[in-house]
Amino acid sequence: MINNTLVEKLYTKDKRAIARLISLIESDNTLTSEYIKNIHFKVGNAYRIGITGPPGAGKSTITNQLTKYYLTQNKTIGIIAVDPTSPFTGGALLGDRVRMTDIGMNENVYIRSMATRGSLGGLSKKAIDASDVLDAAGFDVILLETVGVGQSELDIAQAADTTIVVLVPESGDSVQAMKAGLMEIADLFILNKSDRPGSQQAYTALQTILMIKDHDENTWLPRIFKSVASENKGIDDIAEEIDRHKTFLNEKNLFLFKREKQAKVRIKEIVEHKLKDELWRETGENSLNSTLDKVILGSFSPYHIAEEIIEKFKNKL
Amino acid sequence: MINNTLVEKLYTKDKRAIARLISLIESDNTLTSEYIKNIHFKVGNAYRIGITGPPGAGKSTITNQLTKYYLTQNKTIGIIAVDPTSPFTGGALLGDRVRMTDIGMNENVYIRSMATRGSLGGLSKKAIDASDVLDAAGFDVILLETVGVGQSELDIAQAADTTIVVLVPESGDSVQAMKAGLMEIADLFILNKSDRPGSQQAYTALQTILMIKDHDENTWLPRIFKSVASENKGIDDIAEEIDRHKTFLNEKNLFLFKREKQAKVRIKEIVEHKLKDELWRETGENSLNSTLDKVILGSFSPYHIAEEIIEKFKNKL
Questions:
Q1: Quick one: CA torsion of B184, B186, B188, B190, rounded to 10 degrees?
Q2: Which residues of B touch A180 (CB under 8 A)?
Q3: Which residues of A263-274 are buried (b: 16+ CB within 10 A; e: fewer)?
Q4: Would the pLDDT of A149 be above 80?
Q5: B84:A55 CB<8 A
Q6: Where are the domains of chain B?
Q7: Is A275 in contact with B274 (Cβ distance < 8 A)?
């Protein structure tokens, strides 16, 4: 059941209403669906900026500085910070969040940390739903900050209109793995902590990788910005580049195209989630437990059991 | 259709047959299901060791040394190395693999790299299926090496009987995020490159975290091993600890219990995968594309469209 008072409060950017709605998204799939359908007509006006990169690259500091910049432009800012969590304890590492308390107190800023629980996944789905809530609330800018180490973090970053990838000189070899995914989603790179040794080398390496990418006049070429975010150096340039990217998307008619692609990915994820929910609600743990002995004792493979479960599910529908 | 000659060759540890079957697992879900069901009666005898940790911690070197150790014990060893991939280019970073060529030539060792493609996930499912192939082939030990940065890598590590988490002193803050997940799955820790500065501090920090975990006599307490794997220091101790863990699992009757839990996770994943496959085969991209305009133009939310798709799917079943 939709609580209309809650929704009305959301539209006034009431922080407690926003918090309640996002908590609801984290805990109740059925209600999430109802609320997102209800507020959808208000969604679509916020500009979404994704900020991702390896742990320790300084994403929070950049988020912080960008927020302060947008505040000077009289914008309202909603922040979703996705923290990686232990799949076992459910405890997010909120250390970075603490540094953000100065902007969090501002009435034109809303900050929310989200963390995943269990192995059911769905974090990207929830973070995007939460962005819809902030969008409907009327925030001008939404910053989606994630630690870019897993698929779901990449998914979130791609749900943005402009995606920033933050790297540090020493990322070098050790984050090669991450960069492999990150290189492709970046609309701009920030080479943070660029006062550190190895900075020029890292810059050149990154530049080289970017230059070998295929492109034509309808392809946006990501640029690299050196930054020392803790000293607030370079943030104006970065904000300007985000604007330039926004203008590019609009001029090339790529903006709606990008959002359409994102909607498709999102719908797919929602469908799969709903179906999974139904499946395990119908099937139940018990029927799974009762057949487990058969696998362990060797007579049936997990694939046999899986087929049995699917048949039963289909018959119930 | 099952190729019986291929299966017969698998049972003789024919490397080309193994390679073909694993390629098949990577590319064809229906055939995977048929083959895993077919070979299941041969599966269950190998001891599975998971090796995970952040990029650059030295996992490949440890895998390499452990393999050499088991060779001196006249064991046969199968290795599945899961490489993180760009979800866009599909290119795995196989640099580490190159270092392994010396053991790869040994007739008692089989090495296979696996990488994920696209955002469909399922890498953990495929890596575990591939382990079944090696198990059925009769390898005594299976080493599952993954880069422990995402959920699917954690899933793979947990599919092992003994899970080793490799860390380095400088992992420190920057891998806090990863450690959060890694701490809970480790049966033993290797603090690699322990000749480096900060090693004692890292050791103490790790020890402290381990000590605050709840435990009783039926709980295995993970120990921390300092190692300089590139010099082959400490590998005997590590192999001995793996044995001690195996004995512990057997004595406490936890071995079957652990495998049962793993089978449950696996069956769930197979069921969800099969259902997803069917869903998108039935629904098709076209019906999704045709409804997309409605979302973009604002009249329907992604949740509306998702429900429509699910209804259609159910009606078709």
A1: -100
A2: 84-86, 89, 91, 93
A3: bbbbbbbbbbbb
A4: no
A5: no
A6: 42-252, 270-316
A7: no
Contact between chains at B267 and A259 (C-beta distance less than 8 A): no
CATH of A39-252, picked from 3.20.20.150, 2.60.40.10, 3.30.390.30, 3.40.50.300, is 3.40.50.300
Please write the tens of the pLDDT for every residue from B221-268: 899 998 876 777 788 999 999 999 999 999 999 998 888 888 888 888
Q: How far is CA B170 from CA A174, B211, B213, in A?
A: 11, 21, 23
Nearest CA in chain B to A263: B302
Once rounded to an integer, what is the mean pLDDT over residues A228-233?
72
Q: What residues of chain A lie within 8 A of the CB of B167, using their CB?
A: none
Name the closest residue on chain A to residue B275, using Cα atoms: A310
Could you please state the CATH topology (level 3) that the domain comprising B42-252 is classified under.
Rossmann fold (3.40.50)
Q: Are A245 and A220 in contact (CB under 8 A)?
A: yes
Task: Please report residues of B whose CB lies closer than 8 A to that of A83.
Answer: 177
Q: What is the pLDDT at residue B200?
A: 84
- As a whole number of angstroms, the distance between CA B29 and CA B122 comes to 10
Residue A68, burial from CB neighbour count under 10 angstroms (0-12, 13-18, 19+): middle
- Bigger pLDDT: A289 or B68? B68
Summarised one tens digit per residue, pLDDT across range B112-130 is: 988 755 434 577 888 999 9
ipTM over 0.90: no
Residue among B266, B292, B306 minimizing CB distance to A302: B266
**Which residue of chain B comes nearest to A312, CA vs CA?**
B271
Question: Nearest chain B Cα to A295, which residue?
Answer: B263
Closest partner residue to A55 among B155, B176, B263, by Cβ? B176
Tokens of A20: 């309640």
| Phi then psi dihedrals of residue B316, to 5 deg | -75, -25
Cβ separation of A313 and B279 shorter than 8 Å? no
User: A194 to chain B nearest CA, in Å?
Assistant: 17
C-alpha B91/C-alpha B117 separation (Å) is: 8
Taking alpha carbons only, the member of B246, B261, B126, B231 closest to residue A88 is: B261
Q: Which residues pair with A111 in a beta bridge?
A: A79
